[in-house]
From TrEMBL:
SUPFAM superfamilies: E set domains, NHL repeat
Source species taxonomy: Eukaryota, Metazoa, Chordata, Craniata, Vertebrata
Record's keyword annotation contains Transferase: yes
Protein name: Tripartite motif-containing protein 2-like
Region (Disordered): 119-184
Ranges: Filamin repeats: 23-124
InterPro entries per UniProt: 6-blade_b-propeller_TolB-like, Filamin/ABP280_repeat-like, Filamin/ABP280_rpt, Ig-like_fold, Ig_E-set, NHL_repeat, TRIM-NHL_E3_ligases, TRIM2/3_C
Source organism of the structure: Salvelinus namaycush (Lake trout)
Biological processes per GO annotation: nervous system development; proteasome-mediated ubiquitin-dependent protein catabolic process; protein polyubiquitination
PROSITE patterns (UniProt xref): FILAMIN_REPEAT, NHL
Residue spans of biased composition, Low complexity class: 125-145
Length: 457
């Protein structure tokens, strides 16, 4: 007797796990936006716009999943950071923060087409005078306001001149003693552009023990690799929505085995490439909603910060989920907008919570150990923290996006110092890492360059 016994259950599970098809009848021409955040907001404070999707006949859509994008910009680049929340009932919130005053254009798109009335004109006002005068004395280095003033006078040109001078010295002899040191900057690399060594809205930064600096160049859909001295080495990345392609690389990490791990915010997965840039695998597909930052822990596990889901995922490099923690909210194990993570020598996970203006430290199992920071411009306060790194002594270095500065804390979250960025101010810093020769490298996103600093010296 011979029988074929079908294992249909396994097949069903496989097909189930392939993914789901999502549909929406929303059309851009009928969809609308409302809310005060559509016309005005205040520098550094979160603002909100509600988008209501409608179908071709103008009827209310009742389900979510529409692909919306939002951008606050000037002709020379994006000035805001924010996220879109899908209420799954046909309405969406765009919560954002702008770090510069002025008149901007706010574009809201559904499937790449402007919704009704988009682009909108947005006026961004400075914070109230009392708040500013209170904090300017308390804060030794307010990168954001200095930067805004400088740029107000001569947009672009001033910083470009400085950039080329710094770049020149960096490529020659980066740590030349005879150069008078103005602040903690060692060198800067890059201007806005699409070529090698140029960037458009760079986000994540990582380093390798072999003396490399890796930059997730998000709007150019590639990763660029430099030496610790700032010399361009290579780049890879092909734009697209298929496995092996990049749509919006925001996070980058280097695995101890040399592999390069990339969080792709728009493709909603994490891609793994060999050290030569050859595509190997992806992980988190179908689970992740908006992976922004990525890191590797002491066990070689991949830590993914899902900004949209407000969840930290820990994967084996094979893609198997080890654990996850976090949800949206202000509770102990919750996030209001996590961006990047770092891992210390105790294998604890340090996460920046952008909209909660804090840094949270968790055990590998996801128990909250420590939280520090509040909203403000004072020492140890944040206006939307982004990049984070931890050094061999357990000190935590945090990019303070809205205040355009970098702060250094000890392992218990006590403020130690600022990196002095006064001579060439940052503008919306994002990812941050420590180079193998002990310097801090930061993605100066708004200036479309990366900068290398000394710290605690
Ligand atoms: C959609 O959901 C949000 C959040 O739960 C709620 O505030 C809003 O009123 C809902 N809108 C509609 C039209 O049901
Ligand atoms: C930063 O460096 C500049 C230039 O050396 C110096 O004038 C300024 O006092 C420094 N700021 C702080 C807070 O140390
Ligand atoms: C941040 O979270 C804490 C709870 O951990 C909450 O009390 C506080 O209001 C939150 N801050 C903001 C600005 O959301």
């Amino acid at each position: 007797q011979l029988d074929l016994v079908m294992e249909a259950e396994g097949l069903r599970m496989t097909i189930h796990n392939l993914g789901t098809i999502v549909t929406t009848s929303a059309v851009a021409s009928q969809s609308e936006a409302s809310g005060v955040g559509l016309e005005q907001c205040i520098v550094g404070l979160p603002a909100c716009v509600t988008i209501t999707t409608r179908d071709k006949a103008g009827g209310h859509c009742r389900s979510g999943n529409a692909i919306l994008s939002a951008e606050v910009c000037t002709p020379d680049g994006s000035v805001a950071d924010g996220e879109i929340l899908d209420h799954k009932n046909g309405t969406y919130d765009f919560v954002y923060t702008v770090n510069k005053e002025g008149e901007f254009s706010l574009a809201l798109r559904l499937y790449d087409q402007h919704i009704k009335g988009s682009p909108f004109s947005l006026r961004v006002s400075p914070p109230t005078t009392t708040a500013t005068s209170l904090t300017t004395t308390a804060t030794p280095s307010t990168g954001s306001s200095e930067g805004a003033k400088r740029r107000g006078k001569s947009p672009g040109s001033g910083s470009k001149k400085k950039g080329s001078r710094r770049t020149g010295s960096a490529l020659g002899t980066p740590r030349r003693r005879e150069n008078p040191i103005e602040d903690d900057l060692i060198f800067r690399i890059g201007t806005k552009g699409k070529n090698k060594g140029e960037f458009t809205n760079l986000q994540g930064v990582s380093t390798s023990s072999s003396g490399r600096i890796l930059i997730a160049d998000s709007n150019n859909q590639c990763v660029q690799i430099f030496s610790n001295d700032g010399e361009f080495k290579s780049r890879f990345g092909v734009r697209g929505r298929s496995p092996g392609q990049l749509q919006r690389p925001t996070g980058v990490a280097v695995h101890p085995n040399g592999d390069i791990i990339i969080a792709d915010y728009d493709n909603k997965w994490v891609s793994i490439f060999s050290s030569e840039g050859k595509y190997k695998a992806k992980l988190g597909s179908g689970r992740l909603m908006g992976p922004k930052g990525v890191s590797v822990d002491q066990n070689g596990h991949v830590i993914v910060v899902d900004n949209k889901a407000c969840t930290v995922f820990i994967f084996q490099p094979t893609g198997k989920l080890v654990t996850k923690f976090g949800s949206r909210g202000n509770g102990d194990k919750q996030f209001a907008g996590p961006h990047f993570a770092a891992v210390n020598h105790n294998n604890e996970i340090i996460v920046t919570d952008f909209h909660n203006h804090s840094v949270k430290v968790f055990t590998p199992e996801g128990e909250l150990l420590l939280k520090f920071g509040s909203n403000g411009e004072g020492n140890g306060q944040f206006n939307a923290p982004t990049g984070v790194a931890v050094d061999v002594n357990g000190n935590i270095i945090v990019a303070d996006w809205g205040n355009s500065r970098i702060q250094v804390f000890d392992g218990s979250g006590s403020f130690l110092s600022y990196i002095n960025t006064s001579a060439d101010p940052l503008y919306g810093p994002q990812g941050l890492a420590l180079t193998s020769d002990g310097h801090v490298v930061v993605a100066d996103s708004g200036n479309h360059c990366f900068k290398v600093y000394r710290y605690l010296q």
